[in-house]
Amino acid sequence: MKLYTRTGDEGQTSVIGARVRKDDARVEAYGTIDELNSFVGQAASALARSGLPSLEEMANRLVLIQHELFDCGSDLSYAEPVAEKMKVAPEMTERLELWIDEYEAVTPPIARFILPGGSEPAALLHVCRTVSRRAERRVVTMAASQVCPEEVRKYLNRLSDFFFAAARAANAELGVPDVEYERGAHVFRRRT
Predict the structure, then answer these.
(1) Which is it for the CA torsion 70, 76, 77, 81, positive or negative?
(2) How much is the average pLDDT of 46-50?
(3) Please, what CATH class does the domain formed by 17-174 belong to?
(4) Do the beta carbons of residue 105 and residue 169 sit within 8 Å?
(5) To the nearest 10°, the Cα dihedral for 35, 37, 39, 43?
(6) What is the arithmetic mean of pLDDT over 68-80?
């Protein structure tokens, strides 16, 4: 099998059921998810190198998320989504919520926004958070003019929250404090 096909040389590509421009909103959406997946792999590698069991477990969770990001891209690749072929399910988003709660329980309270960074793994997770937000925006843009699987949008929304919580948990596990944005107002309150 050759890696190149030459079928996209004129600026078009195939989605399931149609041929579209490479800058089509659908292609932008799943392309940004693909970009996110690469950053998630980088973060998983950094976490796995930590030697800490809790961060190795976080790395394993990121690998599962990488598979789910492929599911998101697959669902978005249908010009007309077919319900029984969609892979992203509500249970995936619900699991992210459980992990968010778990990580939030092991981090110190914050009152202000925090600066992305701290430890290397946390910094990489913050990159994942921001690219996840961009992927979500691309999906919202696509959904304004094309049919879009709703579960993908929900999953991406929760995923960015997961990366925030995971970044804070990684810093806490490594003994690196989050740095609050010092000129910011008090905006966070711990949920009870």
Answers:
(1) positive
(2) 95
(3) mainly alpha
(4) no
(5) 180
(6) 92
Separation of CA 115 from chain center: 19
Separation between Cα atoms, residue 22 and residue 20, nearest integer Å: 6
Q: Is the pTM of this model over 0.85?
A: yes
pLDDT at 192: 47
pLDDT tier for residue 75 given thresholds of 50, 70 and 90: very high
Quote the radius of gyration of the chain (alpha carbons, Å): 18
Q: Which residues contact residue 28 at a Cβ distance below 8 angstroms, ignoring those fewer than 6 apart?
A: 138, 141, 142
What is the amino acid identity at position 44?
A
Task: Say if residue 191's pLDDT is above 60.
Answer: no
Domain ranges of the chain: 17-174
Closest CA to 62 of 147, 148, 167, 140: 167
Within 8 A by CB and 6+ apart from 172, the residues are 106, 107, 108
